[in-house]
């Protein structure tokens, strides 16, 4: 067992849709407490499925976990229904920012905090959201569907934060947004993390993901083919090649099995270094 505290761990999870489609093949990933972990990969690599098995929503899409386990802290949550997983503090911002377009900004946030029984905690969570996204405070009475794509993404993240998550799962938050808005979202993810929430970020935009993340994983055909500190991956020729579009898939470079191009990162040692720096 790892000595560094983990917010969430995916331990050799395999998943499929129906009988024919294998989406994850013994995928393994760790989110240390307080980290921002990015998952990169091309279309169909299994990124969304990985998020779904963490949030328990895979079944809603016809998916099934066929092996392995997901842990929040030490607690196994693989296969629990999404409501129970939310109760463990794992909250997903779904792809495509599914906000309630007919409701106002304020009403959307209220829905996000619906499980927060204590009114003071709900008020604190709302103040935190308005602090992170002042535009949501300005537009609190506006119908959400009338806002821009970037504002809707902010609302989707804000709504998830209303549940005071231990782990926030973000699926392609930069998708379809203008560069300036992407920059704002990236800044906010860093700030959310600085305030104590662990984050898992699925992104096709490697530049954004590796700029925000502390650690990163690369998925290919449902397998982790590369992992390490984001700063190292950013400088890796393999990553540069892959995401500049002219390289061979990493799986071709890796003879058989998910052998990382970089040495696997020692999260435990890194956590020790961090806590030494902090003290
Ligand atoms: N609901 C579904 N039913 C059947 N097959 C699915 C379903 N969702 C995903 N798949 C398949 O599972 C595999 C992994 O898909 P997944 O969406 O997890 O990848 P991804 O990396 O998120 O890709 P993208 O960036 O295109 O969303 C693909 O082969 C995909 O076609």
Automatic annotation (TrEMBL):
Keywords: Amino-acid transport, ATP-binding, Nucleotide-binding, Transport. The keyword Amino-acid biosynthesis does not apply. One of its GO terms (molecular function) is ATP binding. Belongs to the ABC transporter superfamily. CDD domains: ABC_TM1139_LivF_branched (cd03224). The keyword Transferase does not apply. PANTHER family: HIGH-AFFINITY BRANCHED-CHAIN AMINO ACID TRANSPORT ATP-BINDING PROTEIN LIVF. The lineage of its organism: Bacteria, Bacillati, Actinomycetota, Actinomycetes, Propionibacteriales. PROSITE patterns: ABC_TRANSPORTER_1, ABC_TRANSPORTER_2. InterPro entries: AAA+_ATPase, ABC_transporter-like_ATP-bd, ABC_transporter-like_CS, BCAA_Transport_ATP-bd_LivF, P-loop_NTPase. It comes from the Bacteria. It comes from Nocardioides endophyticus. This is ABC transporter ATP-binding protein. Residues 8-246 form the ABC transporter domain.
């Amino acid at each position: 067992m790892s000595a560094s505290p983990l917010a969430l761990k995916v331990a050799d999870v395999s998943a499929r849709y129906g009988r024919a489609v294998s989406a994850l093949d013994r995928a393994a990933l760790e989110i240390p407490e307080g980290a921002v972990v990015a998952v990169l990969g091309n279309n169909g690599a299994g990124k969304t499925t990985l998020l779904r098995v963490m949030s328990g929503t895979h079944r809603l899409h016809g998916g099934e976990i066929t092996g392995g386990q997901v842990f929040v802290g030490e607690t196994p949550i693989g296969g629990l229904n999404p409501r129970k997983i939310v109760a463990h503090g794992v909250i997903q911002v779904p792809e495509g920012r599914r906000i309630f377009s007919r409701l106002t900004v304020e009403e959307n946030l209220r829905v996000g905090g619906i499980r927060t029984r204590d009114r003071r905690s709900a008020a604190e969570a709302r103040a935190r959201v308005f602090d992170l996204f002042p535009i949501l405070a300005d537009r609190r009475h506006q119908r959400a569907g009338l806002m821009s794509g970037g504002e809707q993404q902010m609302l989707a993240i804000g709504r998830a934060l209303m549940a005071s998550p231990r782990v926030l799962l973000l699926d392609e938050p930069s998708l379809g947004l203008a560069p300036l808005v992407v920059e704002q979202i990236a800044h906010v993810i860093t700030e959310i993390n600085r305030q104590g929430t662990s984050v898992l970020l699925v992104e096709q935009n490697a530049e954004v993901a590796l700029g925000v993340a502390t650690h990163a994983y690369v998925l290919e055909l449902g397998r982790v083919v590369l992992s390490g500190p984001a700063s190292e991956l950013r400088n890796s020729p393999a990553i540069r090649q892959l995401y500049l579009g002219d390289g061979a898939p990493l799986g071709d470079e890796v003879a058989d099995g998910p052998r990382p191009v970089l040495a696997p990162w020692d999260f435990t040692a890194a956590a020790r270094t961090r806590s030494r720096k902090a003290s």
